[in-house]
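Protein Record: Sequence and Backbone Structure Tokens
======================================================
Scope: a single protein chain, as residues and as a discrete description of its fold.
Tokens: labelled as protein backbone structure tokens, with as many entries as the chain has residues.
Position: the record begins directly beneath this header, with no further notes in between.
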Amino acid sequence: MFNRDIINEFRKWAQKRNRKPLVIRGARQVGKTTVVRMFSSEFDQYISLNLERDEERIIFERNYPFSDLVISLFLYSGKKREGGRTLIFIDEIQNSPKAISLLRYFYEDTPDLYVISAGSLLETVLDKKISFPVGRVEYMAMHPCNFREYLNANGQEQLSEILDNPKAPGFAHDLLISWFRKYATTGGMPEVVASYANQADLTALQPIYDTLIQSYMDDVEKYAKSSAQVQYIRHVVGNAFGEAGSKITFEKFANSAYRSREMKEAFLAVEKAMLLKLIYPCTSVQFPANPNLVRKPRLHVVDTGLINHVKGLMGELVFSENISDVYRGIIAEHIVGQELRTSSYSVLHKIHFWIREKKESSAEVDYILPWQGKLIPIEVKSGTIGKLRSLHQFMDQVPHSIAVRVWQGASSIEKARTTSGKEFTLLNLPFYLVHRIENELNKLPF
């Protein structure tokens, strides 16, 4: 099994003096349970509970003092309270509101115990007046595998190490681009990554994608607030992967007869399950990034590989020289957005894009990055500087002179000029260095 970068974040959490129980948020099948099991090897004892099982949920439901609960956990698992450093993992914790409320006492009464909880549908209980221990837990977001993890899973540790050096030699650049194209094709869902690492067979991935999507469909009733909402959510889940990467309207989404209000509420429910993200555009170039909630949002889903599967794009991606040429560049944009999202484990981390305020203009910049009091434009393109018209319009308005292009070419820095004559610095980064955008920006002279 490959190493997950998030384990390093777990280690930082475990080393905190005033450590709080950790709540992992993430969609189903992104590897939450597996990565905690991997982390458990660093402890003397590991107690794992899944609250979908009645016999393990009832441990938290009984009405007895918290000290007796702790004793019960150790007795049930056959472990000793004095057995050394103990990691307790409470999976699918959303099935027990009482277990959620009891997390505070692990923080207050048993600071020697290391407690991690997770629940793929955890977000859905936050609207149900659950007594969540505010201020006594901390959160971490978990996403599909990033590109580095993808390389490690496929036995490419040496290439993975080169990612720390933005000036990769030519032969390494070609290899990294080739592997990134595979990553953009299959995506980063752990089961998919593991299967491809073992067989390198795209056809073997098809049933895995189908099973993932079906499992999301089977969860629809758990997202819904009412029986009437089930059909709306089912429509969203069933069509989101085919519509991903584009701006959407709620009214009659995906050729339905559903109204805007019905669809918007359904989207918000599925968003809480972390299967998708509605990215609203910013219309100002001024820091900070303030999304305009009146404009159409762009739909991002949990993993790019699912888009390729639903849209039947895998064959085209395999034989394409440049992923920016496939599906109007949407796949390239989406996988860059996925890398930007996986670059942070904060549940508050957001990504943004920009559109021009004027209605007669269709200018749009793929992403904007808040950085050191500035909004840095990021364009995902393969063309020349002169073709980056939307980027030029953004740079003409913004009070700084730094822009980023993500492309298939090598890493470089060049001086550029907008069509109206403004000079700016363009940082060119290959797809495989998206995770280093801020590091490379920090190197630029002001």
